[in-house]
Amino acid sequence: MASALDHVVINVLRRMDEAEALFAALGFTLTPRGRHSLGSVNHLMMADGAYLELVGVPAEGRQRQDVLDSPFGLNGLVLKTDDADETHARLARTGLAPAEPVAFSRPVTIDGVETEARFRTVRLAPGRFPAGRVYFCQHLTPELVWRPEWLGHPNRFLGLSRVEVTSAAPATDAAAYAVAANATAEQTCGDLRVTLPDFVIDVVPGDRARFATLELVFDGLDAIGERARATPGAEWSETRTGSGAKLALPAFDLVLACRSAR
Question: Glyoxalase-like domain: from which residue to which, for each copy (predicted)?
Answer without folding.
Answer: 5-177
